[in-house]
Design goal:
This protein has 340 residues and is an all-alpha fold. It has 16 helices and 3 strands. It is globular.
Length: 340
Amino acid sequence: MNVSDYPFTQEAAEQVRKAGYSLESLLGKTSFKAVRGRAQERVAGAISGTIAECASRNDAEKLFELLSYPLARLMVSCLNDPILLRRYALAEAKLASRRMQNIGERLMVIADDLGLHPQGPGPYKIHFSEYVRAAHGMHSPKWKLTNRDLSQGYLTVTEEELKRIMEEAIGERVLKGLPIPVDERICEPLQEYLEPLKEQLDAMRTRDRVDLGKAEMGAFPPCIKKMLSDVAKGVNLAHSARFALVSFLLQINMTVDEVVSLFNTSPDFDQEKTRYQVDHISGASGTRYRPPACATMATYGNCPGEDEMCKRVRHPLSYYERRLRTFRPLPSQKGPGAGT
């Protein structure tokens, strides 16, 4: 197994330690300029959505690829942007997933390193505790433990499902410990690499900035505000929360385009898939869906806590309509005795 292809593994970390290069050397020596360039490429790829492949042919190239990973983590930490942190973890996981497609039995080595211990030549048996730990962030119904076969503590997954679970576990591992505590002494030598990345981040924010149109965000109920805040931070919403948010925004007359653009900051944003889902909720298939009532929101864990207005309504739309009156008071009607 080419360890440099999987720099998040314990074996890779041990190789980096054995190499014995100081941080000062990686940050400043001309001989490591290619490492710094590849680290910047990793971060830039995370911002744009995909880290480009880097073919490592000889031992020196493999070592440089390996060293670029911890240096990329330093760059991400210097930038310290919450959306970038998640995008970076996802992009590294996607890169590893592409590399895992044709590695045969070595797949088990990586799975073991990630704390998964699949049994059998495939389909594989995985202990439910390992499955839950790795797949907890996967919200599609097919990944729910209640929808899997379970016997004597083990459930069955196909090879493709195993790879998908491993991808999720890799993302969690990459994200763990980020941002690394850094100071100016570390970040300053990297400024020539960080500045273009900052510009790329600013351009991404400008491109992805969402205009809520005529919607009055200040009148949104706490649940919708929390969901919008999470989306802005690059958090992938659970399916039930995403449905609630989309159906609510469509009901207050936001367009499909406006709602789709809202999810641009999500690390796993897929425009075509998102548009299909939003179109479906909007009624393109014949049924226009309403957002769930407050009781349903609470059942699915999507209620962050009530405020005073919540106690007087039973539906997010009712909350919005009542609060909207304080933001957009109706014109007073003149009656008998009214002033001119």
